[in-house]
Amino acid sequence: MNPFIQNLIVTALTFIYVFGLVALLNFCVTRFNLPQDISRKITHIGAGSIIGFLVFYNDYHWSKYLNVTIFIVWIILLIQKGLFASDDDEAVKTMTRTGDKKELLKGPLYFVIVATICGSLFYKTFPGIVAIAILGWGDGIAPIIGSRYGKFKYELLSSKSVEGSLSMFVAAFTASVFFVWLIIPNELDITRILLLSVIATVVEACSPKEIDNLLIPSVVILAAMTII
């Protein structure tokens, strides 16, 4: 297949995937009263998992960078919705904790900006893939487990739990191993991923809410490039 057409088709599939996920979660929130904080984190995990589509991109054509198109579109949408959306907007109901549209201008917006950087400057590199895998799955699972099952609380810059931090580490490590194996198997390094997962867990434990979507991937990429 022509590489441009191939990459264009894969990009179209990312749009179907993302908008389909948002629509499905909106349906679950509206019809089955799925808690918004759970919906928000499922969206978070789903957005991180979009790197799985990188497997299908042809790396020998400039159009491989179309992989960030979905994130650029969402940067525009989140700004627009964060400023002007109605309370029953799909994004407001599925991507916010409280239903306040201004939340879209914080964590969710930071996430898609980071994803755009990882999909362009760090396209199919070890630091970029691990950063998004950890951010998507680790930081996505931790609050769900911590808020519902966390009994041993601690507080640094925000309230956390031991259970949430442990789930952050396990999810970050597992997802990183899987996506590195899937996308760039020749660079799979279990020890390196283990150390980065520990670092990310510590950063998440110390991060204020909302800013973690910037701090976690930034520290992971920096550590992967300079230390580990």
Topology:
Elements: H1 3-32, H2 36-48, H3 69-84, H4 90-95, H5 107-120, H6 126-149, E1 153-155, E2 159-161, H7 162-183, H8 190-206, H9 212-226
Antiparallel strand pairs: 1-2
Helix pairs in contact: 1-2, 2-6, 3-5, 5-6, 5-9, 6-7, 6-8, 6-9, 7-8, 8-9
Quick take:
This protein is an all-alpha fold.
Detailed description of the structure:
The chain contains nine helices and two strands; from the N terminus they run H-H-H-H-H-H-E-E-H-H-H. The chain has 228 residues and is mainly α. The chain has a two-stranded antiparallel ribbon. The relative contact order is 0.12.
Overall geometry: globular
Q: By helix and strand content, what is the structural category? A: mainly alpha
Q: Give the overall pLDDT as a whole number.
A: 92
Task: Tell me roughly what share of residues is in helical segments.
Answer: 55-70%
Helical region count?
A: 9
Largest sheet: 2 strands, antiparallel
What fraction strand? Answer: under 5%
Distance between the termini: 38 Å
Radius of gyration: 17 Å
Main sheet: strand order: 1-2
In total, how many beta strands? 2
Order of helices and strands: HHHHHHEEHHH
Integer count of domains: 2
Low confidence ranges: none
